[in-house]
Amino acid sequence: QVRLVESGGGLVQAGGSLRLACVVSGGIFRGAAVGWYRQAPRQQREFVARVSMSEETDYADSVKGRFTVSRDDARNTAYLHMNSLKPEDTAIYYCRLEALDLWGQGTQVTVSS
Question: Which of 18, 2, 5 shows the shortest CA–CA distance to 91?
Fold first, then answer.
């Protein structure tokens, strides 16, 4: 059974940094693109970043230059490095196996002003 588990969220001041991790179990990580999404209170879930199986990356305009997505196939883990955090980055962050539309449970990121 494929399972995604996010970690690394927390409370940080504006301008700070966090690194989120998404561990994928079930043996299919190497062949899969992984996306990061977020959902703020009373808002729709939105795309944040994506890393393909060949490590090509894609970002939402709102996070370009501040966030970096990466993957470590040896650890079956995708990462989202978040720098220069802003209060508007506050949300629950989810990872997703794109081709299978499988989601993790999410991790809360709160940025205080």
Answer: 18
Q: Which amino acid is at 39?
A: Q
User: DSSP labels for the chain?
Assistant: --EEEEE--EEEETT--EEEEEEEESS-GGG--EEEEEE-TTS--EEEEEE-TT--EEE-TTTTTTEEEEEEGGGTEEEEEE-S--GGG-EEEEEEETTTTEE---EEEEEE-
Cα–Cα distance measured from residue 103 to residue 113, given in angstroms and rounded to the nearest whole number = 30
Residues 14-71 have pLDDT tens digits of 999 999 999 999 878 888 999 999 999 999 999 999 999 999 999 999 999 999 999 9
Query: Cβ–Cβ contacts within 10 Å for residue 104, how many?
Result: 20
